[in-house]
Design a protein that fits this description.
With 201 residues, this protein is α/β, with parallel strands linked by helices. The protein has a single domain, classed as HAD superfamily/HAD-like (Rossmann fold, 3-Layer(aba) Sandwich), CATH 3.40.50. 33% of the residues lie in helices and 14% in strands. The protein has a 5-stranded parallel beta sheet with strand order 4-3-2-5-6, sandwiched between helices. The chain has a two-stranded antiparallel ribbon with strand order 1-7. Helix 1 packs across helix 6. It starts with a strand and ends in a 10-residue tail after the last strand. The relative contact order is 0.20. The N terminus and C terminus are likely disordered. The structure holds magnesium ion and zinc ion.
Length: 201
């Protein structure tokens, strides 16, 4: 049967998205990473982003950055680091569509960041926010995290998730996408043959 799962845009203009946790998934989690010198790439991370970029995925980073709330570093440090990361992804032919970070913590040193927010994972606020701003096809989307709270945030947002325990991120991603495909009944928006009677959008 010549039904193919489209990797790209569906009839409503929605695209599949991959949400990456940052520390421990894209870069090694050294604890409160906030300087470019502390950036140690996980094997296959930049390749994973360029792979997804070429397939037309939306690609997001969703990261808890309570180091801001704790006064260890500022939002400007996080944003500078994300610009450096983006430059690296671009050098590999990829790009992140949006970096989302939560600067809060319920016991923050700074009053401005001391709150029980909706964005700190396991809450799904960052994912919901991105899904409001971008045309995400939730059914074909996936979050990759290295902690249970990452996966809990994805579940609360109604998207699939996979727990990364180290190794090569590109290989892990490809296996996770195969599994997502296998668990998803085919609802392709592209038909290769006009004889098909099961082409559903
Ligand atoms: Mg992590
Ligand atoms: Zn927050």
């Amino acid at each position: 049967m010549a039904v193919t799962r489209t990797q790209g845009i569906d009839l409503n203009g929605r695209r599949p998205a991959i949400f990456f946790d940052r520390d421990g998934v894209l870069n090694e989690d050294l604890g409160f990473v906030h300087k470019p010198e502390q950036l140690q790439w996980v094997a296959g991370a930049r390749e994973a982003v360029s792979y997804l970029t070429k397939l037309g995925y939306l690609i997001f980073v969703v990261t808890n950055q309570s180091g801001i709330a704790r006064g260890f570093y500022g939002a400007e440090d996080v944003e500078k680091l994300h610009r450096v990361m983006q430059d690296n992804f671009k050098a590999f032919g990829g790009r992140i569509d949006a970096f989302a970070y939560c600067p809060h913590h319920p016991e923050a040193a700074t009053a401005a960041f001391r709150q029980h927010c909706q964005c700190r994972k396991p809450s799904p606020g960052m994912i919901f926010d991105l899904m409001q701003k971008w045309p995400v096809d939730r059914r074909r989307s996936l979050l990759i995290g290295d902690q249970p709270r990452d996966l809990a945030a994805a579940t609360a947002a109604g998207i699939a998730s996979a727990l990364f325990r180290g190794g090569n991120l590109l290989e892990f991603l490809q296996a996770a996408l195969r599994e997502l495909d296998a668990n998803n009944p085919i609802q392709s928006t592209t038909c290769q043959s006009e004889e098909l009677d099961v082409c559903t959008a």
